[in-house]
Structures are given as structure tokens and as C-alpha cells.
Amino acid sequence: MQEKLVLLIHCPDREGLVAAVTTAIHRHHGNIVDLDQHVDTDRDVFFMRVAWTPPPGDPQLAEQFRRAFATDVAEPFTMSWRLERASRRARMAVFVSRYSHCLYDILARWESGEWPVTSRWW
Can you give the pTM of this predicted structure? Predict the structure, then answer.
């Protein structure tokens, strides 16, 4: 199975953001497999999540991408961003209201493996 990287971004909205991000991935020979973007027009903030696969066989690529992305894209666009490996298990906290059906749905998704998250029960 090929490694997948996930780039998470938010910054002030402006022209050229999608082009800059996708071009940076292309320059590192990445293949975008999923891309979601949204603009909060009330706050004028751009959000993006990009899942991509790097070319196989270069263990240093993620670090090279981080350095290049920071200087070539993140700084000029004043981005807050992070790059994660999709295989990293996320931590999730669950806060429950009085409506139990919501909790049952969350637990069913976790138990089925739909949400591969780390859990700890108190």
C-alpha cells in the first residue's frame, strides 16, 4: 500500500491559493487523490485539505516538501498548515449531550473501523 500524506491549511482568502498548493505538490511528483476546500466568507478565511501520494522510494520527500512548502507557499500566503501521514491514528474526544442516538452513531463508526482513531475509556 502506498503512503498517503495529508496537507491541512487555513489562511486569509486570496487569489491563487489552490494553484500554489497543487503546484507545490506537483513539483514534488505527488499525485492528489482527494482535495476539499472551503471559504468562510464571514471571516474571509480559506480552508483546504489535500490528500496525496508521493512517489515511492524516497523516504526524505516529506521533509523536503515541508521545507519547500514553508518558504515557497506558506510564508507568502500567511498560511497555518501541517503535513500528516494518513496512517497516523488521530486522537478523538467525545462529548455527549443527552441524545444517546448521537453517541451510538459515533461508537458504531468507531467499532466498524470507519473512524480509525485511538481510544481510551475512563
Answer: 0.72
